[in-house]
Amino acid sequence: MPTTLLDIADGVARLTLNRPERHNSLVPSLLDSMNADLDRIAGHREIRAVVLQASGRSFSTGGDVAGFHAVPRGQRRAYAEGLVGSLNRTILALLRLPVPVIGRIQGAVTGGSLGLLLACDLAAITPQAFIQPYYAQVGFSPDGGWTAMLPARIGAQRAREIQLLNQRVSAQEALQLGLVTTCIETDTLDATIEGWLEKLKTMQPASLASTKALLAADCAAGLEAELRSFLELIDSDEAEAGMTRFLNRGI
């Protein structure tokens, strides 16, 4: 099965993460496919908005820890450089699109997948969804905008607390922190997004593009710094032990 799906109709591009059997965890094939889809979207003049969504129970659990662990030590740095580098390109591509990006968020949003949510202009989240870093538990350095983008959104002290203590952010708290636009039950999620889409279609495209460009944070340098720190830790003894504990939890 393809790891992403792209449907373009009636001026709306719907980009779906399609790895539900692994909770849409991020692997090179998924991010490569996503970046190719975003290139198609960027070159399509008729698109007025993008809906970023995911199949299955989870939006995305971030980098696939089992995928990292399966790479032999000594090769993980190269694997991580490709993966996190691709994730950074995805985040920046979403931010730089001249049309609004709407996130449809359910289930887990953990690890680097937070960056996909942070790159959305509007987001609807279900009450059962949650956000959690897991970096300090696994032994990875933060990626996906946890340090490059999150502090600007919620404040540096709250961002520190969540990451250092591996706190879980509920859907309602995500709304209170301004990480999402609305928290709404699953049975009305799509209707809410359709309402946004209809309203966006009445707006002037050039004005929307200008608003997005002016509001977009310049986070490229911060994402690059995250990548370099990630590479420093990924092949360490600490990360090896942390991945093993994480993968064996509950056994």
UniProtKB/TrEMBL annotation:
Q: Could you tell me the keywords of this UniProt record?
A: Isomerase
Task: Please give the superkingdom of this protein's source.
Answer: Bacteria
Database matches in InterPro entries: ClpP/crotonase-like_dom_sf, Enoyl-CoA_hydra/iso, Enoyl-CoA_Hydratase/Isomerase
A Pfam family per the record: ECH_1
Keyword Cell inner membrane included in the entry's annotation: no
GO function term, MF aspect, one: isomerase activity
Kindly indicate whether the keyword tRNA processing belongs to this entry: no
The record ties this protein, via CDD domains, to:
crotonase-like (cd06558)
- Identify the Gene3D superfamilies for this entry: 2-enoyl-CoA Hydratase, Chain A, domain 1
Family label: Belongs to the enoyl-CoA hydratase/isomerase family.
* Protein name stated in the entry: Enoyl-CoA hydratase/isomerase family protein
Native species of this protein? Ferrovibrio terrae
